[in-house]
Amino acid sequence: MAHQHHPTEINIGVVGLGLMGSSIVVALLLSGHRVIGIAPLAEDMEQAPEKFNSQLLHCEKSGLLTYPIAHYLSKLTISTDYSLLRDCELVLECIIEKEHIKEQVYQKITNVVGEDVVIASNTSAIPISTLQNYVRNPQRFMGIHWAEPAYATRFLEITCGEKTAAERAEWAFELAHSWGKEPTLLKKDIRGFITNRLMYAVYREGLSMVENNEASIADIDKAFRYDEGSWMTLMGIFRRMDMMGLKNFFETFKANFPRLSNQDHIPTIMQRIIDIDAKGTQNSKGLYPYQNGEAKEWDRAFSLFNKDISVLADEYAQNRELIKDR
Questions:
Q1: Which CATH number is correct for 11-186, 1.10.3720.10, 3.40.50.150, 3.40.50.720, 1.20.1250.20?
Q2: Which of 45, 101, 141, 197 suits a disulfide with 39, CB 3.0-4.6 Å?
């Protein structure tokens, strides 16, 4: 992925150095920014140095670095002291999805930064319109939602709350392009934003098919991997309609929409997952069985795939007039 330096190379703060937060820090370092990483939890502070070294080493092996690893680490400050955020123009919150804890963190941030500093959350679950009420000058608050790993994916979702000032969101939108992203700008705060909202519908339909013994989990995954997965990165879903020809879509929608699941209860298969404390590849218990290090192999494969897909996306993006977003 090609990383371009933003002209101002502003100071950016990241609060929360877990899996997502640390990945975002690395993405910002690669884009030329000085980054202040704040660890609210002691365990994050202890694990942060090794985590950043490991992620930057992965970036180096993936060909994402312009300079030696030491150069990027020299632009990073890790601390538990929120006062170090005072010179930042943007602060990103990446902590646990608990509203009362986020409220406490926002108070600590606003106590030290300027009144016009943009504050953003990486949340994928809590409405931005709710969170911005915990921030003085809520017009400078928005959602900036990244995909993991942040340094190797092109996705970025900027979401306005009811009180977000349009010019501040546009500023973040323009800045995101300098991070090597293809950002979306959601001007209305809807539950789940764009990506998760679409995926919730897919999960509901897929799990409904499994519950009704119409298809297996493996078959549904195969359909996505070898059909949707073969074209989605290039053209998305609506341009795909254009490519297939629009003539028959109206009748297809008319025939199939009434047959789709509209259930509002959680499928029983998810309750079984909770009962066995399944966390997926994190503890080798999930919708699939994982044995003999297989979960780690999937994590490694995902990392390599992200490298390849970002390079491929860049390759096709060279012809901007062909696939330019409008």
A1: 3.40.50.720
A2: 45
